[in-house]
Amino acid sequence: xxxxxxxxxxxxxxxxxxxxxxxxxxxxxxxxxxxxxxxxxxxxxxxxxxxxxxxxxxxxxxxxxxxxxxxxxxxxxxxxxxxxxxxxxxxxxxxxxxxxxxxxxxxxxxxxxxxxxxxxxxxxxxxxxx
Length: 130
Hints:
two-stranded antiparallel ribbon; 11 strands
């Protein structure tokens, strides 16, 4: 008899001082994203989360901080497609990229408009019923 295969919909990841939990849906319906790291403990829901399928996998982006006339800091989590047997979990490694968009009141500053920090994460993918 064939084992049922489902797609992971809950991802729990961490490294040192960064923890990320992302679910593609929730009991209330919309996706949920929680972040704990240098910017603090933050939670996002629904339209605050941008999810985009790309050649790299699914890119999930949230804005961590906005400081007018200084910068906006966003975090993009790269998620591979993970298929699971019923009731199984899967460990995996991935990257998150913290991007700082530099701004000034006088318009874009000279030099690079963005700076990047790659964060290697390890975690577990699960399939849960919401």
